[in-house]
Amino acid sequence: MRTILTVATAIMFTGAAGTAIAAPTQKAGAVLSDASGAQKATATLTQMRKGIRLVVDATGLPAGVHGVHLHTVGQCAAPDFASAGGHWNPTHKMHGKDNPMGEHMGDLPNITIGADGVGHLDTMIPNAMLSGGEMPLLDADGAAVVIHATADDYKTDPSGNSGGRIACGVLAAR
Predict the structure, then answer these.
(1) The pTM is what?
(2) What CA–CA distance (Å, rounded) separates 49 from 11?
(3) What is the mean pLDDT of residues 53-73?
(4) Active-site hit among 104, 120, 153, 157
């Protein structure tokens, strides 16, 4: 009887402790603006068990297909957003899912913007970490989400021939 009570008590406390100390879901987000400062998109990143989920909701962008990338520096100085640096590439791979030597973690699927200027992207970045670990996205100099003028061809290094940077947002932990 004593053994049963001890085991039951241990299970009860373990369950309660596990619930009480569960880590909150890590999130980060950005508001992407164009060179004039007008808001063009939001990005939300959520740490999942197997990587980072990224959701981009865009409004007021030119219709068509546009490259989207994670960049290494948390700065978005207009007009060209070059301050955001290159693509996040902690594994030192080439660019693009169709490149035999790619793809790196900053490579993302294109976003399609409709005639109404609206687009949505929901994707996973496998094995990526927002913070902690050996290759966190949110490191000492931050990170940015950038939308480019044209489609990413998924193979040309370093940027997939995706044209100029038309919207940029600095990521911040939430």
Answers:
(1) 0.84
(2) 25
(3) 97
(4) 104
Q: Are 111 and 56 in contact (CB under 8 A)?
A: yes
Q: What is the DSSP annotation of 126-172? A: ET-BSSSSSSBSS-TT--EEEEESS---SSSTTTTT--SEEEEEE-E
Indicate if 95 belongs to the active site.
yes
At 74-115, the pLDDT tens digits run: 999 999 999 999 998 888 886 778 777 777 888 899 999 999
For 82, which DSSP code?
G
**27-173 belongs to which CATH class?**
mainly beta
| Non-local CB neighbours of 19 within 8 Å, separated by 6+ positions | none
In the residue annotation, 66 being an active-site residue is answered as no
Rounded Cα distance between 74 and 99, Å, is 27
Tell me, yes or no, if 107 is annotated catalytic.
yes
Amino acid at 10: A
pLDDT given for residue 106 in this prediction: 85
Does residue 87 have an active-site annotation?
Answer: yes
Looking at residue 81, its pLDDT comes to: 98
- The structural domains of the chain, with segments of one domain joined by +, span 27-173
Q: Of residues 34, 66, 95, 152, which has the active-site annotation?
A: 95
